[in-house]
UniProtKB/TrEMBL annotation:
<feature type="transmembrane region" description="Helical">
    <location>
        <begin position="42"/>
        <end position="63"/>
    </location>
</feature>
<protein>
    <recommendedName>
        <fullName>Transport permease protein</fullName>
    </recommendedName>
</protein>
<dbReference type="Pfam" id="PF01061">
    <property type="entry name" value="ABC2_membrane"/>
</dbReference>
<dbReference type="InterPro" id="IPR000412">
    <property type="entry name" value="ABC_2_transport"/>
</dbReference>
<feature type="transmembrane region" description="Helical">
    <location>
        <begin position="248"/>
        <end position="268"/>
    </location>
</feature>
<keyword id="KW-1003">Cell membrane</keyword>
<feature type="transmembrane region" description="Helical">
    <location>
        <begin position="152"/>
        <end position="179"/>
    </location>
</feature>
<dbReference type="InterPro" id="IPR047817">
    <property type="entry name" value="ABC2_TM_bact-type"/>
</dbReference>
<feature type="domain" description="ABC transmembrane type-2">
    <location>
        <begin position="40"/>
        <end position="274"/>
    </location>
</feature>
<dbReference type="GO" id="GO:0140359">
    <property type="term" value="F:ABC-type transporter activity"/>
</dbReference>
<keyword id="KW-1133">Transmembrane helix</keyword>
<dbReference type="InterPro" id="IPR013525">
    <property type="entry name" value="ABC2_TM"/>
</dbReference>
<keyword id="KW-0812">Transmembrane</keyword>
<keyword id="KW-0813">Transport</keyword>
<keyword id="KW-0472">Membrane</keyword>
<feature type="transmembrane region" description="Helical">
    <location>
        <begin position="186"/>
        <end position="204"/>
    </location>
</feature>
<keyword id="KW-0046">Antibiotic resistance</keyword>
């Protein structure tokens, strides 16, 4: 189908905003109701990062020297928080591309609703899902002995940076989900998520890598957020001599802002051009 969404009823900008918010919430409730019908699948998505943390912490933690001393889980958990928001990218991609391939998205576009509601509704639903997944990881970290040591305000700032990265990655996932040809194509894109996750400072200090590889790992947006949250949590392993390590907190804001500036308009444009 190539039919675009009907325009919203004419009125003031405030009225149009109200229509857009109502439509967004309708799509959000639709996505949440789908998850309620698949609780096992949703729970698996929440606990998969827990399994990764237990596996790496239990199998390799004793063999890794933590920069600055301290327990490995204290070093690992801030990185795993960042890894958790990265894993959500795959869920977003699959949901968006499945709706597009089944004609659901075209159906929405033919209805008298806001043209932004489909992508913004998906964004709100996935952010709510990410908050739950991140909460599961925080509880896991506390049970494993992780603590924040920088005060409540710094801890809240760290969680804010994690959610900011998740919000940016949402738009990457929405664009990728709209761009691929079908659910079977998502696998090829998913393969790229793992190198991004492992070529980072999540599990080891980039200083332990070869120089060129360590530089790539340090500039990875995931590493930047992991380093910034370690600093805010006053966890072992933050810092370093490079410029990016010394400026991790501002760069943990700049990287997501850049991703949003690029992929949000691309997602909206791609949505508008579906079927053309």
């Amino acid at each position: 189908m190539t039919t675009s969404a009907h325009p919203l009823p004419s009125g003031s900008p405030l009225s149009s905003l109200g229509w857009a918010l109502a439509d967004t919430w309708t799509i959000t409730r639709r996505d949440l109701s789908h998850w309620a019908l698949r609780p096992g699948e949703v729970a698996l998505g929440w606990f998969f990062p827990v399994m990764i943390a237990l596996m790496f912490g239990g199998l390799f933690g004793g063999a890794i020297n933590v920069p600055g001393g301290g327990g490995y889980f204290e070093f690992l958990m801030p990185g795993m928080f960042a890894m958790t928001v990265l894993f959500g990218l795959e869920t977003t991609m699959m949901a968006v591309t499945t709706d597009a391939s089944r004609g659901v998205t075209d159906r929405f576009r033919s209805m008298p609703m806001s043209s932004l509601a489909v992508v913004s509704g998906r964004c709100v639903a996935d952010m709510l899902n990410s908050v739950v997944g991140l909460s599961v990881m925080v509880v896991t970290g506390l049970l494993l002995g992780w603590r924040w040591h920088g005060g409540l305000a710094s801890a809240l700032a760290a969680f804010g940076l994690l959610l900011l990265l998740r919000f940016a990655l949402l738009w990457v996932g929405i664009f990728a989900g709209l761009a691929v040809r079908g659910p079977e194509s998502v696998t090829a894109v998913q393969i790229l998520v793992w190198p991004v996750g492992f070529l980072s400072s999540v599990f080891v200090d980039p200083a332990s890598m070869p120089g060129w590889l360590g530089a790539i790992a340090e500039w990875n947006p995931l590493s930047v957020t992991a380093t910034a949250t370690r600093e805010l949590f006053a966890a072992p392993g933050f810092g370093g001599e490079s410029w990016i390590a010394q400026n991790a907190i501002p760069m943990a804001i700049a990287w997501p802002a850049l991703l949003i500036a690029v992929f949000l308009p691309l997602s909206v444009r791609r949505y508008g051009n579906l079927g053309k």
